[in-house]
Amino acid sequence: MMERVPVSTPSPRPLLAGLDPEQAAAVRAPRGPVCVLAGAGTGKTRTITHRIAHLVSAGHVRADQVLAVTFTARAAGELRGRLRTLGLGEANAVQARTFHAAALRQLRYFWPQVVGEVPWRLIDSKFPIVSQAAHRAGLSTVTESVRDLAGEIEWAKASLIAPEDYPAAAARQRRDTPYEPSRVAEVYIGYEALKSSAEGMLLDFDDLLLHTAAALEEYPAVAEEFRGRYRCFVVDEYQDVTPLQQRVLDAWLGGRDDLTVVGDANQTIYSFTGASPAYLLDFSRRFPEATVVRLERDYRSTPQVVSLANRVIGAARGRIAGTRLQLIGQRAEGPEPVFAEFDDEPAEALAVTKSIARLLGSGVPAAEIAVLYRINAQSEAYEQALTEAGIAYQVRGGEGFFQRPEVRQAVQALRQTANRDDLPDARGADLVTLVRAALARLGLTSEEPTGAQARERWSSLVALVQLTEELVEQDSDLELPALLRELATRAEARHPPTVQGVTLASLHAAKGLEWDAVFLVGLADGTLPIAHVLGEGGTVTDESALEEERRLLYVGVTRAREHLRLSWALSRSAGGRKSRRRSRFLNELVPENSPASRIAQPADRRAPTRKHPTCRICGRPLLGTTSTMLGRCSRCPADLDVGLLTALQDWRKEKADELSVPHFVVFSDTTLTAIAEQRPGDDRALVSIPGIGAKKLRQFGADVLALVHSRERAQAHKSAGEK
Ligand code: ATP
Ligand code: MG
Q1: CATH no. for 335-399+495-606
Q2: Which residues have CB under 8 Å from 124's CB, separation 6+?
Q3: Is the CB of 19 under 6 A from ligand 1?
Q4: Which run of H or of E encompasses 370?
């Protein structure tokens, strides 16, 4: 007689369909330790969800005895969603949670048995208490310092390091500490004391995990009840586990071995938070009888992208690298990745923007395009260029440049300077000096500071000074009030779009995500790898930190499904000294016949670089995005048809109202000015204006050309009449 399967339980057969042989082997492995070592896009999440469903449907375990954990709420949601489609939702639900959410639930339940009456409260931010502890220790309480201190405390707790051991551990791990390690330890001690001296007990997220582990370790009744309830454990992204989370996992297991883990050591990019791939790499040593499965087929990216990914990680060194697997692309062929070198960052941003416009024109949705960079301050040039081109975007995992607290404070400080009665008459180079002086009070030092948050803040301030320099290049008479007006206009034009746009994100924030087209930008040595892992003259001081930087590039490359462009610039600002080189990670990768390889020679032997755009009036090289878009320098007289510009502005207003979008989404001011100056006669002339791609041409080309033509006819008519 056929076995009757409960309605809500998935049947085993379809669970194995749609899996390759290695995935199926991991799914079918008997209960007990299983380790899946899987590269990016190889189907590891798919494999573990199918494994859970298989164990449940085969009757090896009940759905409610399974606990699946991962690290972010988004990933846990993804896991639950996929389990639901496999029939493991609602009545037959498997618990899929983050470590923290699972611990919170358990602690709520066990607290009365363990601690009794003492009330406790979970704090959602360490910030106020760390700030208080910093104040008591006589340290600064400015936001970035406190955040860096909180980051160190978090790292120490995640790494199971007590305050008294912090200085030695920080030295061993070459932590980038905001203060002398002994001062950080003092704040750590103060922070813990403040939390427990409060009324009741205050627990932070790390305490949740610590108390859960301790309850299971020290209270046999708690352990017995828990272990009777959960029998099977699954961990996704296991390379991200911290010693503290591992301790919780061990407490859950209590000597049992029913554990499936999935991870990719070569995607370890969070070591600075305490995450360690050592547990993944040591899994089969700890469980010698474990089933170990390696997945190599990449279902996400084209063979061209996969090949580059293999070469990036192929050059890695050290223990983690020893575990890498060659990915084998399963998708149809696609375009080769493109490498491009530029003279300066504005030129790079403009070229990337033009490529994005072309992709949009060819039908790639904006939501399927991403620009990824190493540090958040790099977003500024791209926000500006995309705004000028009228392309909507959103900054992921952080605010846009002008929304950042340090940039708002800086603009505010400049406003106060402008309001001073004794405002010096500063223009041009003097204006740059004035701005530097105003920002010096907000932390703009000549040396890059230590501490990740402090460095982010500093980089934003540097970007603001560079923006000032660029504007001064364009107008040597620029004064502070005009600078402030320009900054306000730029901030205003960059309000978050109402439609979904192109994604701007740091490489860290891009982890686990994927897009059809990915632009990896700013790949200069000193940015990726980031300067502080390098010593004097670019020598490597910290080999393991350098390897983590390489893995960041690997994570970046593997986000692309189809189109991938890698670029860098030789100087930061337009016309600046070309003192940079492309990332050392790219040296072996740029193909021989690539334009980037021809121009990326050492400075003295460099072939003539790609021609810089020149002014169509005076012929001098153009500096800065706006002048490049206009095709002339700001000092050259504009051969602007004011009547045409007015007509274009009226038309744009109507169009924007009709489409319910802000007017710059139709065309930016710069693009309209360029049209009114260049008076394009046909489609070709029109698309040669930056900011106008195939899509805009389709949408608005006919309207714009009609306006230009009717204006020319009117002019011809007028001059004929005058003769
Ligand atoms: P990441 O490294 O980003 O976490 P992953 O290894 O978890 O990726 P999945 O997200 O599970 O990979 O799978 C990547 C994509 O490949 C998904 O769209 C998935 O449906 C698809 N995929 C996985 N395995 C197969 C398969 N055997 N046949 C077809 N498609 C597959
Ligand atoms: Mg996954």
Answers
A1: 3.40.50.300
A2: none
A3: yes
A4: strand 369-373
Domain 638-722 has CATH 1.10.150.80: yes
Q: Which residues of 544-555 are buried (b: 16+ CB within 10 A; e: fewer)?
A: ebbbbbbbbbbb
Alpha-carbon distance values, 644 to 375, 635, 678 (Å): 42, 21, 11
Dihedral of the alpha carbons of 115, 118, 124, 126, in degrees to the nearest 10: -90
Q: What Å distances lie between residue 55 and 89, 264, 565, CA to CA?
A: 15, 23, 43
Q: Using the atom order of ligand 1, give the atom closest to the CA of residue 513.
A: 3
Residues around ligand 2, an ion, CB closer than 5 A: 45
| Pocket flag, ligand 1, residue 299 (CB < 6 Å) | yes
**pLDDT tens profile 457-507:** 888 888 888 888 888 877 888 889 889 988 887 787 776 555 678 999 999
Instruction: Tell me the pLDDT of the chain averaged across its residues.
Output: 86
Residues listed for the chain = 723
* Whether residue 117 has pLDDT greater than 70: yes
CATH topology of domain 21-113+207-295: Rossmann fold (3.40.50)
529 in contact with ligand 1, CB cutoff 6 A: no
pTM over the 0.85 mark: no
Q: Identify the residue whose C-alpha is closest to ligand 1 atom 27.
A: 19
- CB distance 555 to ligand 1 below 6 Å: no
- Is there a common fold for 21-113+207-295 and 335-399+495-606? yes
pLDDT at 161 (0 to 100): 96
Nearest-angstrom CA–CA distance, 637 and 639: 6
- pLDDT digits 0-9 by tens, 431-444: 998 999 889 888 88
Q: Is 582 in the pocket of ligand 1 (CB under 6 A)?
A: no
Quick check: CB of 300 below 6 Å from ligand 1? yes
| Euclidean distance between CA atoms 497 and 288, whole angstroms | 54
Looking at all shown ligands, the one closest to residue 554's CA atom is 1
| Shortest-distance ligand to the CA of residue 558 | 1
The residue among 235, 247, 250, 296 whose CA lies nearest residue 274 is 247
Centre of ligand 2 from the C-alpha of residue 68, in Å = 13
Q: Across the strands, what pairs with 70?
A: 98
**Sequence spans of domains, the chain:** 21-113+207-295, 124-202, 335-399+495-606, 401-493, 638-722
The β-bridge partners of 373 are: 506
First to last CA, the chain: 104
| Residue 312 tokens, joined | 């990036």
Residue 85 Cβ inside 6 Å of ligand 1? The answer reads no
3 state SS of 693: coil
pLDDT digits (tens, 9 = 90+) for 674-722: 888 888 888 888 877 766 777 788 889 999 999 998 888 887 877 676 5
